[in-house]
Amino acid sequence: MSQPDEGIHSNSNRRTDLDPPDADRWRPPRLSRWYLLLIPVVILPLCSFWWNSNSPTLFGMPFFYWMQLLWVIVTALVVGLVYLKTKEQ
Prior knowledge:
InterPro entries: DUF3311 (IPR021741). It contains 2 helices and no strands. With 89 residues, the protein is mainly α. The protein has a domain of 54 residues.
């Protein structure tokens, strides 16, 4: 007589030798304090009303434009730093 069909998920709870010893325990990802550096570089460029003026100028460029460009550069540097510090986690 044949065995009753157990369905396609019958082997889903079976462990193999390749699984690490604590494979059954789920752990939430650890958040690093380095991620806190991302908060100001996301929020502050959105507050453009603080630097909505023409002076001081830099190479003839109004303050508003060169400050926005400066935030692009600072954001790229901070994101790169946070990536390098957290990529091993």
